[in-house]
């Protein structure tokens, strides 16, 4: 009888230690926060200016693909807050993957055109790169306004370079 009790105790201990190991591995997966902003290029300048408006309620998508095969391994979506900022939570290290955040749509009717080159931002989601923070900042993503604001001509003159008249 004592042998049976000892065997039951040992089996229970093995089972519990397996649960502890499994639980501890699932708890230690790194979590990254991908943060960026979405804006309306009100001057159609191709970059942010003092007239830029940040868009609340814009939709973005994150997609990670295997570097070698190109197979999509992770996707997620998010919406910008009142300041035009999104924060996407991504679980697990993506060392062997290429991850991009991309524009999906804008809630502002006159600012829905997606600007090529400002429609996506590449991000690195691994701790094997010397970065200690879990927050990854993506470049701003921009939509183009249908018609530039009237002030834009004067505003863009400050960016003029050279002797062009």
TrEMBL record:
Protein name: Pollen-specific protein C13
Domain of life: Eukaryota
Entries under Pfam families matching the protein: Pollen_Ole_e_1
Alphabetical UniProt keywords: Disulfide bond, Signal
Cellular compartments per GO CC: extracellular space
Signal peptide: 1-22
UniProt similarity note: Belongs to the Ole e I family.
